[in-house]
Specification:
single chain, about 900 residues, mainly alpha, 5-stranded parallel beta sheet, 3-stranded antiparallel beta sheet, 10 strands
Length: about 900
Amino acid sequence: MARDLRMLFGVNDRSVAAEEAFTNRQAQWQAVVAALTDHLQRIASPAFNVEDLNGPRHNIVVGHGVGGIGKSTLSRKIEASLSHPGGRPAQWDAPTWPLERILPVRIDLARASGIDFERVVLSIRLAVATLGRPMPAFDLALRRHWESNHPGEPLEEYLRRGGLLSRFTNAVNLPQQMQSALSDVAQALTMPGTVGGVVGQLTTSLVGALRERRQTVRALAGCTRLADILEAEPDLETLSFATHLLAWDLAQLPAAQRIAPVILFDSFEEVGDRTHRDFERLLQRIVWLMPNAMFVITGRNRLQWAEDDLHGQLDWTGPDAWPGLVPHVPGSRSHSGPAGRQILIGDFSPEDCDDHLSRRLARDGQPLIDANLRHVITARSHGLPLYLDLAVMRFLEIRRSGRVPQADDFGDFPALISRTVSDLTTDERHVLRSVSLLDAFSVSLATRVAGLPRDAAALRLAERPFIREDPTGLWPFHLHQVVRSAIRNAADGTDDRWSQQDWQRAATRALTVLGHEWSEGPRRDRAVLIGCLRQGLSLARDFSLDLEWLIEAAFSYIGDSVWEPLAPPTHDHETAALRTPADALVETLSTLARRQREHRALTVTRLTTVINSSLLPTELHDMAVYYRAKALRDIGRSQESRRGYQQVVDGGGRLAQAARRGLAQAARLAGDFPTTHAAAQTLGWEGRHQRVLGDLWWVQGEPARAATAYLAGRLEAEQHAKSGEAAHCQVLRALATAFLDPHQADDELELAEQLLAGLNLRATGINAAIAALVRDAGHPTLDDRLRALRTEVDDAGLTSMAPTLELAAAFHQAVLNDREALTSTISRLCDLTQGGDFAYYTDIAYFMADLPRENPSPAQWLEGQHATRERWRTLVTARRAHLEGNR
């Protein structure tokens, strides 16, 4: 590693070692060459066994870095360099091994490429087709998979339609190679030569021959796992394991014809996130099961496969399995094998930032910058190498003064500004400062925020390396975070720096432009609302601006009950004082979104703080009062909830009708059903009258009428483009239907799941889970689900949902005629409803089990207690009959 002379001459202490820690593309190419050289030596060793499933894997190298840093370009260059000598950049050294031994294939995993796992496997096989030979073991499994999963669709047609024929010049030969493999096996088994329609019969016969160790199939008998794969269900799981057969086939080639596939997976971050790893698990199997192939993976993140914490999420994890993926610790010898197989491309990850700072300045092999300070610098750098460089210089400067460097010494560096704007025109500098006010922007938005008449400066700026692009975003461009922070916060010593008044005027202009973008822009969807609201709230808060269009946008936000995370972060959000109306609005909307993952008691506390501040205009003040009333209802404080609803009704504002619904629902909770029914007739769409009726009908034992009302409510919501309300009504329709018909409830729940996708509706999700319990009532395996739901309801603080969950349990127990369990459930219901709300749920539990009720609740049933009892009892007996009929 080269000596960093600037650092070296920045300190008198010769015991301090200063090393340059950055890499370049040539170094990354050299790392790939070194890894491939090591791989070729391993697979050429007599000790190498392609069927060994236990040994560690060294057949991988990973390039990772932030988006737009050139990972895909590097992947393409590597593929070209391995394909032919002319494809290698001039500055890259030539490898020592002949390219004829290498078979590269690059697979773009980006969603935009339309890739799926089946196409990944086909791409690898199509690349191997260039050898002009069948891969008999794998081709049998692939043909069986294809006929099972694509009945009536010739592979040739699929390849042609999918564009694979044009990409792989030998793709046209694959079907013939597969047919040749099948014919050879058929001949060995003395079956008819034409096997087009009898692949199943062929594989069955082959499996039998392999199990019986017949000499006729000795060519395939050496593949010890072939029979197991051919017997397995031909799904994607089996296809992933079948890649082991392709590795085996390649290992059987004569030495003179043997090649080493190099498979380049690009855009690896798009195979899923770090929670959902289904696609990643399939791809990892390919890497593990093809040890004679080299894999070059590029993506935004380090591969975590060497971490033990992933055990159970992936098939092979830990440092022993993947020694090359272990974060490199200088001097460590804990794992044999190649180190440094994860290569940083561009900006550094937090781990690499820490490693860089540790190695930049050291004494006696120990980092000069302590771990806590390295953590602070890493967090503030956002991975920008320049920031780390400036931080090391700042560290030395402070140390020379005799003072110990502290975390507060490492903020925004003015040098970042000067280096960023040094080669920009005046207009480009103006646009740069203007867009630093925004989280994201388009060229058009940047021009208007800057107040310029033409797009030229914004177009030029968008091509600069510190501007990052996300083509899928609402606004595709954003500033590198550390550059943005420096421009906003560092002391700007440039000649055209802005005054505080300049920043204030720019912020006012930006807020106006965002309002225009939302109300009159080319798109008028919710994504635009959320994008404009997020950025507008941040500007209004940071510069104490008037709320203007944000008031109307806030009401549009709450109108759909979707609750995307919205409020911009502050440096100290939890303790930040409310000083302006913008502060209060940010806190209100943040609280409404956060209640989907927080206890509702916290929602009450936060909204009370906003209400007591008296900072919001009247209509937004009503918003805080209304949603506090809802949260109070959720945690069982019914009287306070009713007072809040009544206050909003008395104010006559735009939430008055919603508050009337709250009062109608409060009457229903108290068992005053006639009042609820009468109120529903006056609520209209704004008061969600159909949902109120649905909630009323099902507790009367009339789930069919309830389901009809919920359907009408969902259709109204769809007509008004309110996806949150539509999803809520559909979930409630599924709940009502679940009491009547489990089969229809399946369909209703499936639709509810589709409508809930992408929405942040915790309570509605719990309602869907309760509906699934009711649908499955009578099956003896619901106890674990009941316990899990009780815990979730408690964690969310949704006290008002607990009685409905217990009623679902009572229905289940009544169907089973489990009197002991039902007695416990009734006891819980009594405890939950002793305040008066939902007291009639205990009545319903007795109705279901046909038990006498000595002290019924004061509920005013719409058609009397006897009729209601009969309806609930009929639902239970009908479910019993349904279960009996399915046995």
